[in-house]
Amino acid sequence: MAVDPLIELRDVNKYYGELHVLRDISLTVGKGEVVVVIGPSGSGKSTLCRTVNRLETIQSGSILLDGRPLPEEGRALARLRAEVGMVFQSFNLFAHKTVLQNVSLAQTKVRRRKRDDADRRSLELLERVGLAAHAAKYPAQLSGGQQQRVAIARALAMEPKALLFDEPTSALDPEMINEVLEVMRQLARDGMTMVVVTHEMGFARSAANRVVFMADGRVVEDRAPEEFFTAPRSERAKDFLSKIL
Ligand code: ADP
Ligand code: MG
């Protein structure tokens, strides 16, 4: 696809001590693209996400955001973490802060917005994820699906260039999965660049531009969803799909 690259990994290698977790990963995510990453447990999917906003360092290769190498430290690194938002399996909300405060906090601290501006923006975003009515509640008063939607609103509040989702629905009860996926589908339709690690194959089929299949730290397949699901090329992918579908 002839789109501008936003995230580019070139020959990325990462080790945890002796363990070679990312092996010669080359991967490009274009602006507005939705890339779903799937693969067996331990294949390096979370590590891949974490290297992209530099929660982990790499030993060789390069990662570019919008054509520039990732910053190493200081304010530029804080800005990177805002520009590449991350949504985790565990929602990581502040328990002793309200929903509104959770969404506003980083805006005032990192983006240096005034409190009023931050709150106004937070309410708009909570509206967008269907939670404006819950702004004054505390996370524990919300369902898991609602908490994850707050976490998405919080990431959006930083006006990210891209969002990384690491198994955003894996900790949710089945009846809550769809409300979170629906918010993610809407973001995709609005043109957000997204990398999504998920086991939700329905989401991959309906929302992804590409599916990246990882095994043993490598990208084994990187293809359009319909091709990947109907005719996986590698034995690893065939085996994986036969277990989950
Ligand atoms: P996935 O998300 O695909 O399940 P991970 O990226 O979490 O895979 O892990 C890849 C490999 O790296 C696994 O073997 C895992 O045990 C190992 N690993 C992950 N995080 C660490 C860490 N902080 N220290 C050492 N090994 C790790
Ligand atoms: Mg993982």
Task: Characterise this structure.
Belongs to the ABC transporter superfamily. With 245 residues, the protein is of the alpha/beta class. Helix content is 39%, strand content 26%. Strands 6-7-8-3-9-10 form a 6-stranded mixed β-sheet, with helices on both faces. The chain has a 4-stranded antiparallel β-sheet with strand order 2-1-4-5, with helices on one face. A hairpin with a 2-residue loop joins strand 1 and strand 2. The structure holds adenosine-5'-diphosphate (ADP) and magnesium ion (MG).
Compile the SSE list and pairings.
Blueprint: E1 5-16, E2 19-30, E3 34-38, H1 45-52, E4 60-65, E5 68-69, H2 74-83, E6 84-87, H3 99-109, H4 115-128, H5 144-156, E7 162-166, H6 174-189, E8 193-197, H7 201-207, E9 210-215, E10 218-223, H8 225-230, H9 235-244
Parallel strand pairs: 3-8, 3-9, 6-7, 7-8
Antiparallel strand pairs: 1-2, 1-4, 4-5, 9-10
Helix pairs in contact: 3-4, 3-5, 4-5, 5-6
Bound molecules: adenosine-5'-diphosphate and magnesium ion.
Low-confidence stretches: none
Give the bound compounds. Answer: adenosine-5'-diphosphate, magnesium ion
Strand content: 25-35%
Total count of helical runs of at least 4 residues = 9
Shape category: globular
| Terminal Cα span | 28 Å
- Strands of the largest sheet, in order across it? 6-7-8-3-9-10
Q: Secondary-structure element sequence? A: EEEHEEHEHHHEHEHEEHH
The major beta sheet can be summarized as: 6 strands, mixed
What is the C-alpha radius of gyration, as a whole number of Å? 18 Å
Organism: Streptomyces hintoniae
Keywords: Amino-acid transport, ATP-binding, Cell membrane, Membrane, Nucleotide-binding, Transport
GO molecular function, one term: ATP binding
Protein name: Amino acid ABC transporter ATP-binding protein
